[in-house]
Q: What sequence folds into this?
């Protein structure tokens, strides 16, 4: 079937036709001919409870019959409060929840929070961001700036803001002459030097646990914690 949809990250010339999915159940997707396909990527990791999960669909139907949406500008609602309370209890050290629409917007909001924080406490020169090479944080202008994967984003460079980019320990692409441990140390040293010598850094941004879109590269054990400690030491917000 041809498509009127503009498909993301898809060279449409290479796809004269697409399989058409008509339903999903658990980990399976079914096309219009009834063929089952295992959804091994959980629809790009946004369907972690499986398709047509009964508990979720029942509660969505129940809630939409009662209240579909009410703004959080100077108002609140029971459901927003209940979920926020649950999330805060699951996340030690957190006190409030800011609701966002998707991953990219969440990252944009975090960047704005960092800038607003420093501004509000009078540290107005802390406006720069540091991130890791090959990180990915989304497809909006701010997140393409923070997580710059060259093959995805080079065409959009004119709309991006400058970010200090640090090397990240990718065991599959080690520079000549380095063992993995040595390269990890090199990356950490470089990050520490950057944080130590620049007093205008608002935040350090990295994916949690691994760089997925940038090649499924898992961070070495303790790497993220070490960066978190450096951020505390040099008074930099980290997320
Ligand atoms: C680490 C990370 N951050 C941000 C995003 C962007 O999320 P979204 O596609 O919901 O905007 C993704 C998406 O895959 C991601 O993997």
A:
């Amino acid at each position: 079937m041809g498509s009127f949809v503009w498909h993301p990250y898809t060279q449409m010339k290479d796809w004269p036709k697409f399989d058409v999915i008509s339903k999903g159940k658990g980990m399976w997707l079914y096309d219009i001919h009834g063929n089952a396909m295992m959804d091994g990527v959980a629809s790009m990791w946004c369907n972690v409870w499986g398709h047509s999960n009964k508990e979720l669909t029942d509660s969505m139907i129940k809630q939409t019959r009662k209240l579909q949406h009410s703004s959080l500008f100077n108002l609140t609602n029971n459901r927003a409060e209940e979920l926020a309370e649950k999330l805060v209890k699951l996340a030690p050290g957190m006190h409030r929840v800011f609701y966002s629409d998707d991953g990219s917007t969440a990252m944009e909001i975090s960047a704005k929070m960092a800038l607003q924080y420093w501004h509000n406490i009078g540290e107005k020169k802390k406006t720069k961001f540091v991130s890791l090479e090959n990180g990915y944080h989304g497809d909006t202008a701010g997140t393409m700036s923070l997580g710059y994967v060259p093959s995805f984003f080079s065409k959009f460079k004119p709309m991006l803001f400058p970010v200090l980019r640090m090397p990240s320990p990718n065991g599959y692409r080690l520079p000549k002459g380095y063992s993995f441990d040595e390269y990890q140390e090199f990356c950490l040293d470089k990050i520490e030097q950057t944080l130590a010598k620049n007093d205008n850094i608002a935040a350090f941004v990295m994916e949690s646990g691994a760089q997925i879109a940038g090649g499924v590269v898992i961070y070495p054990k303790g790497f993220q914690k070490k960066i978190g400690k450096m951020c505390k030491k040099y008074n930099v917000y980290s997320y």
About this structure: The beta strands are 21-25, 28-31, 36-38, 128-132, 164-166, 201-205, 210-211, 217-218, 237-238. The mean pLDDT is 94. The CA atoms of residues 53 and 72 lie 28 Å apart.
